[in-house]
Specification:
The chain is an alpha+beta fold. 18% of the residues lie in helices and 27% in strands.
């Protein structure tokens, strides 16, 4: 029997150990306070920079700190009990399925860091979800990085998340193949200014426009309440209230998904994909930063602080983070392949990059060792009157002016004739389905029997379902086919042996039959690599930069990174591998744009100059997309996600171009926070009567932007297309901004601007 003395000592010890245990707890940053109740739900999210503190957690929608997901049963489990240990900063969450999660919560000055330390037993849980964290904000949703923003002067507050490791992704755990559907939803950013018609409601989903093939035609709604979605890290409910979500998945086992990025369209119906297992890639260790702050300072004060503190990717240009609006700068994009003056033009404009768009697609081919112009740079595709040049020679010339050059590529598409595709295809190709030969075949046989016909009737990739890319791989042979018999013995139909120049061969019964995952045709023809090979392709891009002096890419077909079924994780891993290899080679940050923007590329991607012309911004009508709604749609997506707005390849300097046009282009660019790719055709530029005045206009605005000379209230005025301005340099640190008529006449001093530091 325990003595009275020992019993008292035990009681004291128990009281001491329990003194740091709490059923409910408050957590604070400099701008934000949350309350977690005894069930593990956030019941309060407050802006503490105002008095009284403003509440953003809806009373009827508390937020689970962590939800669990069983993808086989398609069931979520949410916490039912919670205990916080202040001593080791751990929150223990219990669930109805018997699982117990331990989450470490670190309170930093400007954000909370939440990390999943353990989950035991798993009981079928193969994914976890941070949130959804519900807010009562109804203004702007950042669906790519997970942010809920009220940009009004009256509220001026944002609540958001960022992933702190690669396998934590923006979006919900139930997202098929970890890349959210590309679609429209109904959401009014301001119900007073843009009331919804009675036949529409908040959160309603609509397909994109067009035939599912022409990407320009996707953008089909100019109404401000049609919000195109490039992710689902932020969503709205039927009241327009914004919720934010991140998730992490156990990728260590094979699973099957039925995936399309645009599943609503007949041209892009989902394909079944046996997703490659990735050993060691699990949700334990999943980590997020949760933050709240005044919206007007959130990007550079809080988001940048998280990125630097957590050592997330931090590409720079001109010494500044690429997300800093003072670092936004247009690029030159070439046409006509006459390049005598392109470097000079670019330097005079104050731009830093030349995209050699007129050189066509650069296809990744590890067989060239990075030497895109041959091992001795013997190919000289860049035309100058005095003599053609290789990429390396041209890049060395440009580097003397602080200018980089780049190319448009087809991301991870392994084109016919390249090392990993044909005539000797790699054994590291991504496949949709794996089957077995039911009987052996000779090199000339066209009767191919397989053990299981399931999903083999599906045509090629989810994108376009291009019949010419419907192929299987057996050994080192590619074989084209269309269809499969519906009765045993199961026979592939319309067989063509030795496809893409591969060698027809005999194959034994029981040999593996891989239905390959591919891209789309229209010049993008290619096979998708598996993850290990994709890692090598990413490194290859860095090596191409080192060998040839490139430091810019336009990743056309960027959505192909999702085709392996790993979605945003695949994109994030691809760009990490490319940047890591670039660092090993001593290269600066690779600047890139691409066909899409996702949570997987947000940290790495500098700009998003997709499309162009009147689809993006029409300077004549002063519309964000006069031909389609693409300009409006992409402006809304990028702006809401703290990313530079793109105006595409645009505004070519032609014979009758005027300086007043470029005053307006630059005013909009600075006001909204955009970049663009300025088309430069040497013959056209030299024919322009106002060439010198145009160059001076653009350079003046770009110098002032780089000097961070435009305060918030000035940018608001510049962003209004109805206004016209003229900017004059007083000296290298001061500028006068004039309000003018549309033709540039009747200038009236609007503001005096001075250089400000953002560092």
């Amino acid at each position: 029997m325990m003595s009275t003395k020992n019993a008292f000592a035990l009681l004291i010890a128990l009281l001491a150990s329990s003194s740091s245990l709490f059923a409910q707890y408050d957590f604070n940053t400099a701008y934000f306070k949350i309350h977690i109740n005894n069930k593990g739900w956030i019941t309060s999210m407050k802006n503490t920079t105002v008095r009284p503190a403003r509440e953003f957690s809806p009373a009827d929608k508390p937020s689970p700190v962590v939800s669990l997901y069983d993808s086989r049963k398609k069931v979520y489990y949410q916490p039912v009990a919670a205990t916080y240990n202040k001593g080791n900063k751990s929150l223990q969450l219990r669930y109805a399925n018997g699982s117990v999660a331990t989450v470490i919560i670190s309170q930093n000055k400007k954000y909370f860091k939440l990390t999943l330390q353990s989950l035991t037993p798993r009981n079928g849980v193969d994914a976890i979800q941070w949130g959804a964290y519900h807010t009562n904000i109804t203004n702007l949703l950042g669906e790519i990085i997970g942010v809920s923003r009220d940009t009004s002067a009256a509220v001026n507050y944002a609540i958001g998340m960022l992933a702190l490791n690669d396998n934590t992704l923006g979006g919900t755990a139930e997202t098929e193949a970890d890349a959210a559907p590309f679609q429209y939803i109904i959401h009014s950013p301001d119900a007073r200014r843009f009331p919804l018609p009675k036949e529409l409601h908040e959160g309603q989903v609509f397909s994109l426009g067009g035939d599912g093939i022409s990407d320009v035609a996707f953008y089909a709604h100019k109404e401000p309440y049609y919000r195109i979605m490039y992710g689902n890290a932020a969503e709205v409910d039927n009241k327009g209230r914004i919720s934010i979500t991140y998730q992490s998945r156990d990728r260590t086992f094979e699973r099957e998904v039925n995936y399309s990025l645009i599943p609503h369209m007949a041209a892009n119906t989902p394909n079944h994909i046996q997703v490659e297992p990735l050993p060691g890639v699990d949700y334990i260790g999943s980590s997020i930063a949760l933050w709240g702050s005044p919206d007007s300072t959130a990007l550079l004060d809080v988001v940048q602080n998280i990125v630097l503190s957590e050592r997330l990717p931090y590409p720079t240009i001109n010494g500044r983070w690429v997300k800093d609006p003072a670092a936004y700068v247009p690029d030159a994009i070439t046409s006509g392949n006459l390049n005598d003056s392109i470097i000079s033009y670019t330097s005079r404009l104050g731009f830093k990059t030349i995209s050699l768009y007129d050189q066509g697609f650069l296809r990744p081919d590890r067989g060239n060792g990075g030497y895109i112009d041959g091992p001795h740079f013997e190919k000289k595709p860049i035309h100058l009157t005095a003599g053609n040049m290789s990429h390396k020679a041209f890049s060395e010339m440009a580097a003397k002016y602080g200018i980089s050059i780049g190319r448009t590529t087809i991301t991870n598409a392994l084109a016919p004739g390249t090392l990993d595709a044909s005539p000797m295809p790699s054994d590291s190709l991504c496949y949709q389905q794996k089957r077995l030969l039911a009987a052996g075949i000779q090199s000339t046989d066209t009767i191919i029997l397989v053990n299981d016909p399931t999903h083999l009737e599906e045509i090629a990739s989810w994108e376009g379902h291009c019949a010419n890319l419907n192929m299987i791989k057996i050994g080192k042979e590619l074989i084209h086919y269309l269809g499969v018999s519906d009765k045993a013995p199961y026979r592939l139909l319309n067989v063509k042996r030795g496809y893409w120049g591969t060698q027809p061969a005999a194959h034994a019964a029981g040999e593996a039959v891989y239905k390959l995952q591919v891209t789309v045709n229209y010049g993008y023809d290619g096979i998708i690599p598996n993850m290990a090979l994709q890692d090598k392709i990413a490194a290859h891009y860095a090596e191409v930069c080192q060998v040839n002096g490139l430091s810019y890419y336009d990743f056309d077909g960027q959505e192909f990174l999702f085709n392996n079924g790993h979605g945003y994780y695949s994109a994030k891993r691809f760009f990490r591998k490319m940047f890591e290899r670039a660092t090993q080679l001593g290269l600066p940050s690779i600047r890139f744009t691409g066909a899409t923007l996702s949570e997987g590329s947000w940290h790495y991607q500098s700009i998003w100059n997709v499309g162009g012309g009147k689809n993006l911004y029409d300077v004549a009508t002063r519309e964000w997309g006069s031909a389609t709604s693409q300009g409006k749609d992409l402006r809304d997506v990028t702006y809401a996600n703290f990313f530079p707005v793109g105006m595409g390849g645009n505004f070519p300097i032609k014979e009758h171009s005027t300086a007043a046009e470029y005053e307006h282009i630059q005013a909009i660019s600075v006001g909204v926070g955009t970049t663009y790719s300025l088309y430069l055709n040497q013959k056209d530029v030299e024919s322009c009567q106002q060439k010198e005045a145009i160059f001076k206009v653009i350079r003046t605005w770009e110098d002032a932007r780089a000097a961070n000379a435009f305060p918030r209230w000035i940018k608001t005025a510049l962003a209004d297309p109805a206004n016209s301005f003229h900017l004059e340099a007083v000296n290298s640190r001061e500028w006068n901004l004039y309000k003018v008529q549309r033709d540039g006449s009747q200038p009236q001093l609007f503001a005096k601007l001075v250089q400000h530091s953002t560092k």
